[in-house]
Amino acid sequence: MKRIFSLLTAAIVVGSLAAQTLNVQVGNVIYRFPAAQAGVMSFSGGTTLTVMNKVFALSEVSNMYVDETAVTNSAVNIVYNSSSAAVTVAGNIAQYLTVAQSGAHVSIVQSSDLAEEITYSLSGSSSDGGFYMEGSYKATVELNGLTLTNSSAVYSGAAVHIQNGKRIKVKVVTGTTNTLADASSGSQKGCLYIKGHAEFAQKGTLNVYGNVKHAIKAGEYISVKNATINVLSSVGDGINCEQYFLMESGTLTLNGVGDDGIQCDIEDTTTGSTGQTTDHEDEDSGNIYISGGTLTVTATATAAKGVKAEGDIFITDGTINVTTSGSGEWDTDDLETKAAACISGDANITISGGTLTLTSTGSGGKGLKCDSLLTISGSPVITVTTSGGLYYNNGSTENTNYTGDTDKIDSDYYSSPKGIKAGTKTETKSGNKTTYTYAGGVLISGGTVAVTTSGHNAEGIESKSTLDITGGEIIVNSYDDALNSASTLTISGGYIYARAANNDGIDANGNCYIKGGLVYAVGASGAEVAIDANTEDGYKLYVQGGTIVAIGGLENNASLSQSCYTVKSGGSGPQFAPAAGPGGNQGGQGGDQGSSWTADTWYALTAGSTTFAFKTPGSGGTSMVVSAASTPTLTSGVTASGTSIFDGVGYYPATVSGGSSVTLSAYSGGSSGGGPGGH
Asked: What is the pLDDT of residue 674?
């Protein structure tokens, strides 16, 4: 009776001091009721106390007192202090929460009757603690100077575990540094796990260590705005989510990941009696959006992807730096090789802005891989470098620097390094007949794309379908073909520099159309050419426009609607044979015989009032073929200035001085050499 009398006395005091706060303490949890809201408190059977519909067992109440502490409605504050945690709960939401606290591990379960958003503020430090919240109404979690490690695998083992399928706003409080680490064992899917939507905001710093699986995992979408997030290590992905991933601003750095940097999966949306799955675009599932901020990913794992989407990828702005160094591997499920890629999309990739620097050093690695349509437009700056060798593995034998002839082995047994690869080519066999189906491809209409590859079989930009260039500046220095398409290749605009050290500069397995733009192509010496089409299967190179410099010549039997000229050795000035007629000029095997050019020399190609100045490479095919809309002149040994293009290899438009005139003669249809299209 003495205890009940004390509580009654406290209640009377609260009733007379409406500006004060009644604090009801249960262990390390304090419930704070503003006197103005507390109203009538009731006792039942001498065993319970009810305040604002929150029922307390008197046997569990350790203290009850009145002070002048201000109460923020709908707020829960948790302060971690080594092996304990102090929890305070605003009185207006107390009835909806079941709070359990053991040491520095705190669990809060929201009632299904809750109909307002709660803000959970976490601060302090513990080397063995965690936060678990379960509910069905959206919430905010503030990380306000929190250092938290869950070392004993309580509540699955995550440092922060939100078992709530609604929107969870994670505020990384401005000016604070927060560090989370999960247990080294447990069933957690991530160090920071959110079942629903995770929206990261504010300008603080969050450091995350994922010791069992992913560092940050959401069951639905993840968005990042303003915050600085550092994934310092993870056994699995740095960030893993479903629905979509959106980065609007802030800084995201992912290092030490054991799998992919960012992976966005298509959510399982199978519904209905038929078991049909909703299209990922309708559900916005599996997609990645980057519209700002700075993203840096370093992925070292075997066959890892820096940024991986099962759906589409859209990049409109931001600074993106991705490096992969892992080698390829044999996939025991699909029975084929897999390799690393800086950015990989299972559907479409669209890039219209931003600065992307993509570097892959592992065997078979790729800079940008797209299984459907890659579209580059607007004004992005994209730099891709791959230096790994060709990866070979037949399930029992592995070679990370294979240099053999890949035409003689099953394509499932190797992964070639590529700068950019997009599209799909499907082969169907019926009896002795083989048909091909193409999907996706490459479409470039703007921006600057610079690609460098050096490993065996490494092409610069490869489309497994069509390749279309209508604008932009493309600079490719490759080991194998610089530009390659499995089907039609069309250039109708833009500035293109395509140099291959060991194959064709531009190579189409279907028809190749040059309709416009400025094209500077360099093929390797020997049987390769600067611009190639698959004449073996009845296709053709069509030169219909543009300004062209082709070191290594053109594919045999080209159709020349626009006159082309070859550089002839000897002579003191320009000399022209009769112009080639449109559509004709079949054969012409000797059209470039006797031609020559000087390595590492500046030339100027002038047509009308415009001059393209270019520096020749140190090596390449024997012949030089040039073409322009009007009859050109060519000068060698010039001094050039003007608007620099092709990383300093050219100026356009250019101002030149000095030099000597070069003799030109009509080019009559192609050079010998130039085999079938690349791999």
From this structure: 36
Using alpha carbons, select from 384, 404, 268, 409 the residue that is nearest to residue 322: 384
Within 536-607, residue ranges assigned H as helices are none
208-258 confidence digits (pLDDT tens): 999 999 999 999 999 999 999 999 999 999 999 999 999 999 999 999 999
Going by C-alpha positions, the residue among 384, 330, 671 that lies closest to residue 532 is 671
Sign of torsion, CA 146 151 155 156? positive
Taken in order 531, 535, 540, 543, is the CA torsion positive or negative?
Answer: positive
Mark residue 269 as left, alpha or beta (left: phi above 0; alpha: psi -120 to 50; beta: remaining).
alpha
Residue 518 contacts residue 612 (beta carbons within 8 Å): yes
pLDDT at position 595, please? 57
pLDDT of residue 269: 57
Rounded CA-CA distance 456/454 in Å is 7
Other C-beta atoms closer than 10 Å to the C-beta of 531 total 31
End-to-end CA distance of the chain: 89
Enter the pTM of the model.
0.91
My answer on whether omega of the bond before 380 falls inside 30° of 0, hence cis, is: no
Q: How far is CA 252 from CA 199, 203, 262, 479, in A?
A: 14, 12, 10, 33
Whether 386 and 454 have beta carbons less than 8 Å apart is answered as: yes
Which residues neighbour 467 within 8 Å (Cβ) at sequence distance 6 or greater?
A: 441, 442, 461, 483, 484, 485, 488, 489, 490, 508
Give the integer Cα–Cα distance in Å for 393 and 505: 29
How far, CA to CA in Å, does 204 sit from each of 183, 414, 570? Answer: 24, 45, 70
pLDDT digits (tens, 9 = 90+) for 302-353: 999 999 999 999 999 999 999 999 999 999 999 999 999 999 999 999 999 9
Task: Quote the CA–CA distance of 54 and 75 in Å, as a whole number.
Answer: 16
- Cα dihedral sign for 427, 429, 434, 436? negative
3-state DSSP call for residue 486? coil
Q: How far apart are CA 21 and CA 277, in angstroms?
A: 54
Tokens of 466: 């069509």
Residues with Cβ within 8 Å of 549's Cβ and at least 6 positions away in sequence, in order, are 519, 520, 521, 603, 605, 612, 614, 624, 625, 626
Residue 184: CA atoms inside 13 Å, Cβ hemisphere, count? Answer: 1
606: left (phi over 0), alpha (psi -120 to 50) or beta: beta
Phi, then psi, of 38 in degrees rounded to 5? -65, -40
What are the counts of helices (DSSP H) followed by strands (DSSP E) for the chain? 3, 65
Nearest alpha carbon to residue 510 among 464, 457, 458? 464
Residues in the chain: 679
Pairing of strands 48-51, 54-57: antiparallel
Burial (CB count <10 Å: 0-12, 13-18, 19+), residue 570: exposed
Side chain identity at residue 458, one-letter code: A
| Nearest one of 451, 365, 360 to 400, comparing CA atoms | 365
The two tokens of residue 256 are 């030490």
CA distances from 150 to 121, 192, 223, 579, 635 (A): 18, 11, 25, 79, 72
For the chain, how big is the Rg over CA atoms in Å? 33
